[in-house]
Amino acid sequence: MTRMIDRLNAKLVNLPGKCRCPGEPHGKDWAKVRLKSSYGETLELSERLGQSITAALIWWLAIHVIEWTLLDADGKPVEITEQAMYDLEEEDAEFLQEVLEPPDEKKKKKAKPKGTDPPNPSGDPSQKS
Ligand SMILES: [Zn+2]
After folding, report:
1. Which range, 3-7, 50-54, 107-111, is most confident?
2. From the DSSP assignment, how many helices (H) and strands (E) are in the chain?
3. What distance in angstroms lies between residue 67's CA and the mean position of ligand 1's atoms?
4. If both were cysteines, with which of 70, 82, 100, 129 could 78 make a disulfide (CB 3.0 to 4.6 Å apart)?
5. What's the CA-to-centroid distance between 104 and ligand 1, angstroms?
6. pTM summary value
7. 63: CB partners within 8 A, 6+ apart
8. Which residues, in sequence order, are bridge partners of residue 86?
9. Exposed, middle or buried: residue 123 (CB in 10 Å: 0-12, 13-18, 19+)?
10. What is residue 2's predicted lDDT score, i.e. its pLDDT?
C-alpha cells in the first residue's frame, strides 16, 4: 500500500460501439484509464483550465489513458499523445472525458442544490427529512 499515485493502476473501459480499426480486429475497442489523479495533476488542471480549456482537457485525457487498442488508418497502434486525443472522434473523446471527470466537477455534481437542506440549529438528526 502507498498513498502515492500508481500511474499503472487502471480500469479497462470499452469505447462506444464496436471496433473501428482497419479490419475490425478487436471486437470492442477499449482503453485502460487511470481513475486517480495526483495532487499536482489536479492543481495543474485548474491552472491549465485558466489558460485554455481545450488544451487542458486534452492534456487531462492524455495523462490518464495508459493503454488502448486504437489503430490508425495504416493499422499501426496509435500512440497515446495529446495529438491523438485531439484527433479522436468527438463521441470517443467525450466518453473518455466523462469517465475521467476532473475531481472538481465530481464535487460540484455531488453538492446539494442550494436551499434544499436548511440548517438544523438543534443538531438533532431526526429533524432531517
Ligand atoms: Zn479496434
Report:
1. 50-54
2. 5, 3
3. 12
4. 70
5. 32
6. 0.77
7. 41
8. none
9. exposed
10. 85
Instruction: Name the DSSP letter for residue 126.
Output: G
| Dist CA 51 CA 73 (whole Å) | 33
Give distance in angstroms: CA of 55 to centre of ligand 1. Answer: 26
Ligand 1 center from residue 18 Cα (angstroms): 8
C-alpha 8 – ligand 1 centre gap (Å) = 22
Q: What is the pLDDT of residues 6-31, one digit of tens each?
A: 888 899 999 999 999 999 999 999 99
Ligand 1 centroid from CA 108, angstroms: 34
Q: Ligand 1 centroid to 24 CA: how many Å?
A: 6
Q: Output the CA 73–ligand 1 centroid distance in Å.
A: 11
Residues 6+ apart with CB under 8 A from 109: none
**The pLDDT of residue 105 is above 60:** no
**Got the DSSP string for 4-21?**
S--TT--EEEEPSSS--S
How far, in Å, from the CA of 123 to the mean position of ligand 1? 56
**Mean pLDDT computed over 31-44:** 95
Q: What are phi and psi of 20, to 5 degrees?
A: -120, 25
